[in-house]
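User: I want to check something. If I give you two sequences, will you return the structure for each one separately, not as a complex?

Assistant: Yes, each is folded on its own. Here is the first sequence with its structure:
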Amino acid sequence: MSAESEIRDNGPEGMEPDGIIESNWSEIVDSFDEMVLHETLLRGIYAYGFEKPSAIQQRAIIPCIKGYDVIAQAQSGTGKTATFAISILQQIDVELKGTQALVLAPTRELAQQIQKVVLALGDYMGASCYACIGGTNIRSESSPHHH
């Protein structure tokens, strides 16, 4: 595949990307098991209801974990949030209690949705996640949200 290759891929059922996927990353991973993720993270992924990675997850999780800069643009419902959540959860050390990742979201609703996804996927790991939202009472932000 060339550095700026374009391929057409329908991905798993119900997760078809709309149109063309542009990528300079040639590795496509067909299953979560092949991604060599932490066992507790895999349990969270399957418990969340994922069976097979979506087209965007097949291409973006590994480069994210490896520390590459990744820009993933796709329609709603294609698995973008889970892509970066899985990548973050794979890299954190739950024994360290300090902040290890920061996700910025443009709306309160999206921030809360991201928090729910991270907590669900990281449930078996014991991961913590806080949604810090401007304009809210500090007390509501300071209580830990932990599964």
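And separately, the second sequence with its own structure:
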Amino acid sequence: MFYQLKITRKGTKPPVWRRCTVAADVTFANMAAMLEKLVQYPAGSLYEIEFFQKKVQIRENGDGEAKNNFTLLNAGETETAELMDSEKWFTFRQYGADKETPEYRVDIEKKDEGTAEAPSIIKEVKGEDDPYWTEAPELGCTAAVETEVETAKASEDIAATVAAVEAAARAAKADEAATGSRRNPTVKDFLMSYRKEDLLSIAGELGLHCKGMDQEEIAAKVAAEVLKPEVMKASFLVADDQEVLAFEAAIQRKCFHVAEDEWNTLEWLNDMGYLVSYSDDYAEVPAEVAAVYDQINTPEFRTLRSQVNWLKDCLIMVSYLYVSAPAKTVYEMFKQRKGFDIGYDSFIELYHTIPEKACICELAEDQLILKSALVNNIYKDIERRQGGRKFYIPSVDEILDYSENGYPTKSASYQRLGRFLLDEMKVSDAVKDQVLFFIYKECSMDGRMSAIMENLNQKGIQFNDEQLEKFTKLIMEANNNTRMLEFRGYTPNEISGAVWPFATGKPHTAMPNSFVPTAMPMQPASARKIYPNDPCPCGSGKKYKKCCGRR
């Protein structure tokens, strides 16, 4: 097994990069040793690997202190598969080095079962007088061997590389000629910096047929499509308020430096070409994008976007609490928010406004059913377990809390559990949220105590006897106050001793080792690229960036 990586030196324009293969399924200490050779860092230098989206830093022996809200891991004790199999990129740098020492963005292009030598350099793009990569490094392998697929595509890759370099050169020239603080990019020129296979993937998502086209023709066709008002409307219709505000601020900021924590609300724009990002960490909204947005951003569109996003929040609660529910039950949930009391027919019409790929539920015979539960009619098994129980209708505050955070942050039980993790176990806020998110998913669906303990062990959280006793009591309390799928949103404490409409004639036992009868398996991830704003393929109902994409 090996990874194919694209290693790009930060701050270079045109970009300086190497496409490489490295061994997979090793420790990060082994990975760092290979990366040091590939980027030609001095032997024995201190290193740091940072997965920004996961808020994780990795160093030799876990030395030093992590920056705020990051978890520090020991490179020799952490397997690459734990992060590199799920993440898209990371930063590789010399730890403690001066500012002139280059840092590298490492994009994880694929993991393969082929036989390519590793580490090896497949190709590189750099200037003749590059101060850091002066000659081919000694990598400890016989040759840079391409896979069969890469060999077959070699001529196409070379053409794509030349096109990308030419596009970068055009961007650099435009930068020099630009007045004020703008670089005046176009969507097409930005898309030309993509690999051809990535462009084809985007074109496929948009329903475009590009067979036989070269890279420039594909980029032009995709650019023309994403600049259509109806296409931009569909993209922004499912954007949340934070994302829209960030985009509108980006228009006003012209060409601006993007802090790493800003990418959470901007990266989806980058995927569509609505925001052009540069290798020096600056970004800019193309003028042609701003013009189309100004055209579609009417008061009517803003009202519709607000309604769609609130309905999507309600559908997330369907996934958490019911899996399947009458459309009128969801309508009752929807209309309780001030300013959203529309008629039932308008509610159904609003549902059909949501783009299909952004909607997690299917409307069938007046029932809203989680799409992932339609596989093998899983939802019917869940309905049988739920019996004739009444549907719990969550409050507006509950819906907003679950949708934003993925678990009930305002629940006193979860707050006590979170405080224990912070005060007793000394975890960061980010890790605390990850743990509580996992605990909620386990408790509310198909949870087992053993799965929770395994998750904690993976995060390096170890209990002594006294801490374990406290934790067990707290998690029992949290479980018994968790809104569960089996009970259609009611908690075990609310169910205990209840009569119809809650009772089903079967006794309920609070959490032993297994909390809830088997509910729903994970939905297999689709083969298509998953964008941050897409529904998470696990079937949770949350956006990917707020679910599996953040952990």
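Because they were folded independently, the notes below concern the second chain alone. The chain has 21 helices and 14 strands. The domain at 2-133+142-152 is CATH 3.10.290.30 (Structural Genomics Hypothetical 15.5 Kd Protein In mrcA-pckA Intergenic Region; Chain A).
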